[in-house]
Amino acid sequence: MRLITHNMLKCHVKNCSDPDKQFPLRFKGTAGAEEVKLEQIEAERNDEFLVRMLPRLEWGALAITAGELNIPLPDKVPSDPAADDGFLQALHTAILEMHVLEGTMFCNGCGHEYKITKGIPNMLLGEHEI
Predict the structure, then answer these.
(1) Which Gene3D superfamilies does the protein's record reference (predicted)?
(2) Which domain holds residue 85?
(3) 53 within domain boundaries
(4) What percent of the chain has pLDDT over 70?
């Protein structure tokens, strides 16, 4: 799972204790629990795509997640991101080349866990959670 995908996921448990904490899902292992297995898979860089995606990304959540996973990413978006090659490269690496292969995400609101196996997050809920 790429971080661009993670940036669009939130908890959908019906009785989540705090809806304001359903996003972003946090990774277990970033606080010393279960390890998160990351792999960098090279991908062709498309600057036009990156600039178009910026308004769709929740930057604060992406920066927090990247920091927890030790993926270098600036705290802020520059005033002219299209002209900042270093920023575009860091963004490209973070959202398109870094893959979470194994691990667990959890909701800060209700604590529900979502396993990631072979790069695929299991976002299905049990009947009692829908």
Answers:
(1) 2.20.25.10
(2) 3-121
(3) yes
(4) 93
